[in-house]
Design a protein that fits this description.
- It is a single chain.
- This protein has three helices and 37 strands.
- The radius of gyration is 19 Å and the shape is globular.
- The N terminus and C terminus are likely disordered.
- With 439 residues, the protein is mainly β.
- The protein has one domain: Methylamine Dehydrogenase, Chain H (7 Propeller).
- The strands form nine sheets. Strands 2, 3, 4, 5 and 34 form a five-stranded antiparallel beta sheet that branches. Strands 10, 11, 12, 13 and 14 form a five-stranded antiparallel beta sheet that branches.
Length: 439
């Protein structure tokens, strides 16, 4: 299938935790009222729509000042640091990554700087330690890598950056332990790297790139760190792999690739984005074709990583492009590229089935291409004692314990990527994804 007429923007759909404690005089704290914030990059009008997520209903309410202006002209991907201080937006046509401060109380974004990337950056992600950022450059066939200044959020290119990828890299994801990075290439394969715990530099894994299917547009890592999933638009399927915990190499899951998205329509549609729920139980895939589309849901086998379709797919808008799950795992959001809206759903905790939320779809800017959700400020325990303000001498992300591999762990006080609990203890933690434009 030729998706060229529909150019899907790929943006990072990274769910990350805010770790600031907040209490309001005379009112319940913000975290008790919301399930966090949602951000939508609008590629056509160069804005970022921002919303609070209602903790009870999942409904979206625009933030004061939203939509926020993006650097010209095509914002395609947004990622937030684990401590919630900074947001990064890949701007495709300007070949830059914009840096914003993120207000932990209001969710508001304030532009502060930008960094140069390669040609046509499509996806940006931040590693779990909050020290490194990675950007795919689709026209240069490489990945730019940066260190993150813990005080200002500024990006500094790593030595050796950019790092070679496959042909037309579309999407980048980092494993929850911060050891490995994976890049989906439109050429139909996945580049895999080990991450140097000290420098953030990328080294190709032996055997990389690993075969996927045609037009691989999106990659995500399961919150357990055991599996990788890749959306393949050309052959209407999702590739699934187990991760070699020592080397980072990818091994196809039995039965992979799994069909996705073509069963409901008389003409073929292609998967463009895949994400995994915070508890690791469900996968959601956006698929689309000529001004219609679908969001397909799957159960994930916790032992093998295999995907089993969940019966029934809810109505979505025209040309669904990106999907994200809230940090609490209760709600899912899908951007509708041709309708200038985002559809919202509740997730059945037992089956994974999606049910539209009252008031959905919610209005966005023009050309919404990616959606990112983050947890509310109090999702970490003991944040007051862990929290350090800029300039207090803390060199890394707050609320994180140094792990054996040299990366900051996310377990000491329950402070997590996407606000989820420890995977082994409480069923899961977050997943990350992205979305891109395809003319």
């Amino acid at each position: 299938m030729n998706l060229e007429p529909f150019r899907f923007w790929k943006g990072e759909i990274l769910s990350l935790s805010l770790i600031l404690s907040l209490s309001l005089v005379g009112a319940s704290p913000l975290w008790a009222q919301t399930a966090g914030f949602a951000y939508v990059t609008n590629a056509t009008d160069s804005t970022i729509s921002a919303y609070t997520i209602n903790a009870t209903t999942g409904a979206l309410t625009p933030l004061a000042g939203s939509p926020f202006a993006a650097d010209c002209c095509v914002p395609v991907s947004l990622a937030v640091t684990p401590n919630g201080r900074f947001a990064y937006v890949a701007v495709e046509d300007s070949n830059i990554v914009s840096v914003y401060t993120a207000n932990a109380t209001t969710g508001a974004l304030t532009p502060v700087a930008f960094a140069q990337t390669g040609s046509s950056p499509l996806s940006v992600t931040v590693d779990p330690s909050g020290r490194f950022a990675y950007v795919t450059n689709s026209l240069d066939d490489d990945v730019s890598a940066y260190t993150i200044n813990a005080t200002t959020g500024a990006l500094t290119p790593l030595g050796g950056s950019p790092f070679a990828a496959g042909s037309q890299p579309q999407s980048v994801a980092v494993s929850p332990n911060g050891k490995f990075a994976y890049v989906a290439n439109e050429s139909g394969n996945v580049s895999a790297y080990t991450i140097n715990a000290t420098t953030g530099a990328l080294t190709p894994v032996a055997g990389s790139p690993f075969p996927a299917s045609g037009q691989s547009l999106s990659v995500t890592v399961h919150p357990s760190g055991q599996f990788v999933y890749v959306a393949n638009a050309l052959f209407n399927n999702v590739s699934a792999y187990t991760i070699n915990a020592t080397t980072g190499a990818l091994i196809p899951v039995a039965g992979s690739p799994f069909p996705a998205g073509s069963q409901r329509f008389s003409v073929t549609v292609g998967p463009v984005r895949v994400t995994v729920s915070p508890n690791g139980k469900f996968a959601y895939v956006t698929v689309n074709g000529d001004n219609f589309g679908d969001v397909s849901a799957f159960n994930i086998n916790a032992t093998t990583g295999a995907l089993t379709p969940i019966p029934g797919s809810p109505a979505v808008g025209s040309v669904p492009s990106s999907v994200a799950v809230s940090a609490n795992g209760q709600f899912a959001y899908v951007t509708n590229l041709a309708d200038d809206s985002v559809s919202a759903y509740t997730i059945n905790a037992t089956t994974g089935a999606l049910t539209p939320i009252a008031g959905s779809p919610f209005a966005t800017g023009v050309g919404p291409n990616s959606v990112t959700t983050i947890a509310p400020a109090s999702s970490c325990k003991h944040d007051k004692e862990d929290r350090h303000e800029p300039g207090d001498g803390d060199e890394h992300s707050e609320g994180h314990e140094q792990g054996d591999d040299g990366h900051k762990g996310l377990k000491k006080h329950g402070c997590h990527h996407s606000g989820e609990k420890d995977f082994g203890e409480h069923d899961g933690d977050g997943a990350h994804e992205r979305e891109r434009d395809h003319h």
